[in-house]
Amino acid sequence: MPKEIIAAVDVGTTKICVLVGTVIYDNLGNLAVRILGNGVTPSRGLRRGVVMDVPEVTTAIGEALETAEQESGIQITSAYMGIAGSHIATSNSAGISPIDSRHGVTGTDMQRALEGARAVQISENRQIIHVIARHWQVDDQENIQQPLGILGSRLEVDAHIVTGTINAINNLAQCVLAHGIEIDEMVLEPLASGEAVLTADERHMGVVMADLGGGTTDLALFRGNGLWHTEVLDVGGSHMTNDMAIGLRAPFEVAEELKLRYGHLQPERIAEDEQVWVTVFGDKPERTFSRRFISQILQARAEETAELIQERIANSGYGHMVPAGLVLTGGASQLPGAVDLFRKILQMPVRIGSPVDHSAVQGLSRELQSPAFATAVGLLLWALYEDARAIHYPIQNTISENGQFLERVGGWFKSLLPG
Questions:
Q1: Which of 272, 297, 322 delimits the end of a domain?
Q2: Burial grade of 109 (CB within 10 A; 0-12, 13-18, 19 or more)
Q3: Which of 107, 81, 116 is nearest to 10 (CA)?
Q4: Which of 291, 300, 324, 337 could be a cystine partner for 266, CB 3.0 to 4.6 Å?
């Protein structure tokens, strides 16, 4: 695959998306990516973002890869891959490095400090995915975002550590590796989504992004262009659909279609007499339901999700650091009334974030402009900006008990600078 070609694989609970793009320069001379092709297929074999059936997931990924290759005319040989799910955990850590006072902070100093931050004790069944610098300190100068070249004698980093279970990482990796695709990097999905939907001002002032996916809701809190907190919640759009299926006594697929066609998170805005025909279980295959009743089911789950997000923001200790409020993205964020519901409960500014808002992405089809594709587009942007963000250094082969995956999953550990 040519060097200027980048690919992304987003394996979600409800869909799998593969994107192929080429690195270009826009009219102002800034780096950008142009979409060349995409492949989307319904997910199979996943639950809450975790692989439950390797053959099923492998086959579904293969279908999306084939479509993307046909559309782009490019044979995909490597890709950036999103990772999320209920197995993800995070923590914070600090690292220190001495500085040669004659030359100021170097990349080697930063790497050494990040290596120190990475030296945290984690259980044997977990693997570090990211070590991300939240901010730096040189001697008494605090809250530095980019310390390169600053004179001093001592460099400190406050870092955010993201880990996942080795088995979950391996299971996901082998579904892609089975197609002969090298994994350039596994990227935490809320980090990727943030690349696609957040503005520079929001990142600087402080903002929470909530990616309302099918099986999980991914939270990421940014401030001062750095990542301060991440969390994966075990609730998503599929839970809304399941509530409807139970409440209406209808098949899951029917409930999903009803949600997308008639769903609303503000039932009071729906006329009381508006009725919807529904295919249900039992001897009477069809019956009518009030559309307002359907919306009340969805509203209850959405309110629970908003309250959970509010609770997690408060528990993080950083609730006072997000004046830019909440940016919703992901497929479930498209339900009418979402902004008003979340604004009312969280009492902060709320908007919907979409990849179409990002000027560095060209060639987005109408489908890809949807918030549902924020992660996939964000993975391409992550790849685009990687060289400006990452310090690379080899790590030991601990990602797999038999050692067969890490070599192909890049062989490089990414310690990331803020922003």
A1: 297
A2: buried
A3: 81
A4: 337
Task: Please state, in angstroms and rounded to a whole number, the distance separating the CA atoms of residues 352 and 374.
Answer: 11
CATH classification of the domain holding 254: 3.90.640.10
Per-residue pLDDT tens over the stretch 334-365: 999 999 999 999 999 999 999 987 778 999 99
Task: Decide if pLDDT at 406 tops 60.
Answer: no
Closest to 286 (Cα-Cα) out of 247, 256, 254? 254
pLDDT digits (tens, 9 = 90+) for 240-262: 999 999 999 999 999 999 999 99
If one counts every other C-beta atom within 10 angstroms of the C-beta of residue 215, the result is: 23
Structurally, the chain folds into a number of domains equal to: 2
Could you list the beta-strand ranges (E) of 175-234.
Answer: 182-188, 207-212, 217-223, 226-233
318 DSSP 8-state letter: -
Q: Find where tokens 């200027």 sit.
A: 4
Distance CA 129, CA 399 (A): 10
What residue type is 406 in one-letter code? L
Contact 90, 161 (CB under 8 A): yes
Q: Is residue 288 part of a domain?
A: yes
DSSP 214: S
Secondary structure of residue 234 in the 3-state scheme: coil
Domain of residue 101: give its range: 89-163+412-416
CA-CA-CA-CA dihedral for 335, 339, 340, 343, to nearest 10: 140
Question: Which domain-ending residue is among 235, 262, 297?
Answer: 297
Which pTM was predicted?
0.88
Helix (H) or strand (E) holding 90: strand 89-98
State both tokens at 202.
């929001």
Report residue 153 as tokens.
């004698």
Phi, psi of 10 (to 5 degrees): -110, 110
Quickly state the pLDDT bin for 417 (edges 50, 70, 90): low
Distance CA 93, CA 160 (A): 6
Q: Residue 295 and residue 31: Cα distance in Å, rounded?
A: 43
The answer for 29, left when phi > 0, alpha when psi is -120 to 50, beta otherwise, is left
118 lies in some domain: yes
Residue 58 domain-assigned (yes or no): no
**DSSP 3-state helix, strand, coil percentages of the chain (rounded to 5)?**
35, 30, 30
Please report whether residue 263 resides in a domain: yes
pLDDT at residue 103, as a whole number:
86
